[in-house]
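Here is one chain, start to finish.
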Amino acid sequence: MWKRPRVIADVVTVYLFTVRSQKLGTNFVSSCRNLRAMTTAGAAITVTPRVSLADQTVSVCVSNLPPLTPVTVRSLVKNEKQQQFEAHGHYTAGNDRKVDVTRQPCIGGTFQGIEPMGLFWSMVQSPGQRSGLRFTKTNVTEPSIVEFHVYPGHLGVAEFNDVSAISTAVIERHYMDKNIERIPIKETGSQVRGTVFKPKGNGPFPGIIDIYGTAGGLMEMRAAMLANHGFAVIALAFCGYDDLPKTFYQINMDYFEESLIWFLKQDYIKQGGIGLIGISMGAELALSMAVSFPDKIKAVASINGSHMHTYSQRSFRGQPLPYTDYSMDRFISLDDGSFSFREVLDEPNEDAVFDLKQLKAELLLMVGEDDQNWKSSDYAQETIKILKAHNKSNYKLLSFPAVGHLIEPAYTPFCKASYHNLGMTLFWGGTTKPHAHAQQKCWKEILQLFHRNLQTGNSKL
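Its structure:
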């Protein structure tokens, strides 16, 4: 249960002014001076809708404020590991006694400008936790609970514990619509591992295979969010999960062929071809599938991927596949203790490059020009060069300056660096605001790509 914010009485106010103001300075003094006026006026924050899907926008408004009063709006969320992330913005009430986040500029905090969803995408890990945290939603069957608090004055992170909020609101952000079902995949006689998300009912529904990167495990967040738009999506694990190989070094392409065949055999999958989406090595694997099984793949969304097999030798139908090797001697150690892998791969081995003349699917290439994981922008340009050489035009490139490696669905908190199961914190690159805007653009383009090629009608966004 959420507790009603307490109102500071006269005696406490005097105490705060005489003791804490010396510690916290002018921002805190200003906060105390305005606190009684705001609580007496009945200042209140409202966030609508209170229940929404994770890729939908919400409206944040603070009302009943004294005109021209400075306030701080703060958002907080915890993941399943109880790791906390937060954002805050500095606003000034208008003459209408309101702060409307959708139309008024934020002048300080974790973001700036008129940014209706800035209190989501600019979230960073809260102080007092180990470094290198990345916001991920591991249990998509339960919503994220997001708190919003309003404080008097323009405060920083260090001051929140010493000032009482004047109003609080709580909302739910759902990754699965109520009409979506989740089906874990582990069948006797099949190696395929993952989770299917699909609208309830028999369908058939247009199908998508969703593949993440070298961290392995099972990432369900994006697949669930795609399913909300009418698709049947399998979040496909390929290493570090259940009885699959422990690391990506041990995978082979036969597994992806088996996964594709299994998925297409499901009665709820619409025939005629499916879509693929991948990020990082997942994008590499998706493009490899698209050229290996061109008649079964109609659309590919590639996020910061490559156009060749990398890091280790794989096999397909008993034959070894050439690959581009790497050297850990070339990783870059940064001052904050993280590592950039941008230079780790060797120069492309031409024999490892996919046979792109076989590509029939529409290919959407999305790259961050500040990707510090590998040279995804260069790989995208080389992909286009090869396609043009074969007189192909079935591609589109979205290239974003100041954007890093981890391009996630819209409004996901930006992650510049995070701990990887390689045993180190990897530096992904990017700058918060342009990266967040790129995520919104890419998510819209991804949905349009799949709706257009898999013939589902118009996107909800």
